[in-house]
Write a structure and sequence with these properties.
The chain has 218 residues and is mainly alpha-helical. The protein has a domain of 146 residues: Orthogonal Bundle (Tetracycline Repressor, domain 2), CATH 1.10.357. The protein is 70% helix and 0% strand. Helix 7 packs across helix 8 and helix 8 packs antiparallel against helix 9. The longest helix is centred in the first third of the chain and has 25 residues. Pfam families: TetR_N (PF00440).
């Protein structure tokens, strides 16, 4: 275990020393997305994961200790990509000229798109939260990162002063939106569509409400 309580990465992913080994590892991660999306974490079988990745079962176990190790490797990949995406979103010069309402709605739409593309990961994530609290750490990191960037953006508009409470509220708003979208992606409720403007508008309003932002002109 690391000092933060998270197992060291070497405990999850066995080192890849050759290009062929790295390619096989990447295929296994891609296969995990597909198998987890179709069968969930609990229903996915190592033999099927290996076959989907065009690897032997022995090849799987040379790279990962077990199926849970595969999930955590997938999570690390997701975390690295999405952390960069968050910074890219807020660093985009277009944010300077967009209204906060537009930015909030973009965040909602981006969340729908990302979680839809990574539905296999998120299905496995939800199943694993029931028995392994460590799966929350990377998700919480991303939510905190977005919350901090969001709070900084709001402060830059002169609406409120920076305070730890504002960052926490932005973090909680992000988590609330994420929870709603995960539920939609996994269970596909029929009574609304993320393509409906009103749905996006109401979800975007969560950021306003949680951060107690003053009323603005449209």
């Amino acid at each position: 275990m690391s000092a933060e309580g998270r197992p060291k990465s070497s405990g999850f992913v066995l080192p890849a020393r050759q290009k062929r080994t790295e390619a096989a590892r990447d295929r296994l991660l891609d296969a995990a997305q597909r198998e987890f999306a179709q069968h969930g974490f609990n229903g996915a079988i190592v033999a099927d994961l290996a076959r989907e990745a065009k690897c032997s079962i022995g090849s799987f176990y040379r790279r990962f200790k077990d199926k849970e190790a595969l999930f955590f490797a997938l999570q690390e990949q997701m975390h690295e990509t999405e952390s960069a995406n968050i910074d890219r979103f807020f660093d985009n010069p277009r944010r300077l000229s967009e209204s906060l309402d537009t930015i909030f709605q973009r965040l909602v739409l981006n969340t729908f798109r990302t979680m839809g593309e990574l539905s296999g990961y998120f299905r496995a994530f939800v199943e694993l939260t029931q028995r392994n609290a460590m799966v929350w750490e990377r998700m919480t990191d991303l939510e905190a990162q977005q919350g901090k960037r969001l709070a900084e953006l709001v402060v830059s508009r002169g609406l409120v002063a920076m305070a730890p409470e504002l960052v926490e509220k932005a973090h909680l708003a992000t988590r609330t939106v994420n929870g709603f979208v995960i539920t939609h992606v996994l269970y596909q409720p029929r009574h609304f569509s993320p393509r409906e403007p009103l749905v996006v508008e109401r979800l975007a309003g969560i950021f306003d409400n949680f951060m107690d932002l003053p009323k603005r002109q449209s």
